[in-house]
Amino acid sequence: MRAIYFEKDVPRVLAVKALRRFWPGVIWSPISPTRVVEMPDPPLPAADWLRVRNIQCGICTTDLNLLFVQAEPAISAAALPGIQRIYLGHEVVGEVVEVGPEVQRFHVGDRVVMEARPFGSPNCLTQHLDPPCKHCAAGHYHYCENGSRGLAPLGGGGGWGDGYIAHETEVWPVPDDLSNDQASLIEPMAVALHGVLRRPPNPGDRVLVIGAGIIGLLTSQAVKVVEPGCHLTVMARHPHQIEAAKRLGADEILSEDDPYADAARITGAQHYRFPMNRGMLLGGFEVVYDCIGSGQTVLDGLRWARAQGTLVMIGTSFNRMTTDLTPVWHQEVDLLGSIAFGTEDWRGRQAHTFDLVIEMLQEGVLTDEGLITHRFPFEAYREAIETATDKRTGSIKVTFDYDA
Predict the structure, then answer these.
(1) Cβ-contact 336, 197 below 8 angstroms
(2) pTM for this model (two decimals)
(3) Closest among 22, 35, 33 to 69, alpha carbons compared
């Protein structure tokens, strides 16, 4: 089995973070916590586990953040015991090639996608805990209160490589009428849809999406699916991102030249400037979806939201941030987080985000057209990663294609 994994090794993380500024290639060196390995296929650890052969897997920013050691041991998630070895690649569609004798949901030959959880953590289902915690009982496995107890066997392998093993609850069936491209985008589409459903826009709302990488573009698409009657602005940098944002429903593009003045123009807000200060709007967007998640974008997003508006953080950072939260109190702007996907309240019913995305793809209201821009064999993983990180290449989603 070929795979790339990240080791939760604090001394190595700190060493690479210190050296990377002067030696970019340190991430591929022996001192790096990232490893590219050939290893024996691990056996199925229990009767309700299965083995998947990868067909296709996208390169996600979350994986890149770990790969390039853009993480700090001081963040809250690092304090949890959990998984020491994180296999990279989770936007993956594959084929079941082996099932344990107690697997009930799948058969050999089924296509599946990985239902990735933060850092691959177990939950009450995979640990056979009865009763489950309140979050797992409600279908929100990402919040599992028992995920770091280490009572279950751990999987091996990931989307970046030949395949992986998983508990049967950790993968999701792919209908026959979806292509592999569509299937590989189910997970990031679910991330975007879940983020929008954390605070759905209302008819007539002025909505801003910060960032036009793949999650920003998918969030833009989800905004228009959830509420076609809102006015959508997208902050995009590169020409190919601007074109894609307009194609996916953006009514306006927020300029990076003078974004405060542009946000004021779009929303009819008052723009106030002040020395040694980025400025402030009175008025602004009802909802802002931050698909970058840096200290700078949080600062700007809170100032671009109108009083009693909402900023939803969909983009993630593995670093502590310095930012200005004062609009949270003096404008009563709600600051919400979003993690992955779960059980959604959607038009009078409860459904898993994956099921909603699959239905929307089948109905044609969500599209994968033009989103996968580059394909590579796994052997060209360095070129693939370079293409994904350099948006001047025109990349939106770069994918490993294992059947090419």
Answers:
(1) no
(2) 0.94
(3) 33
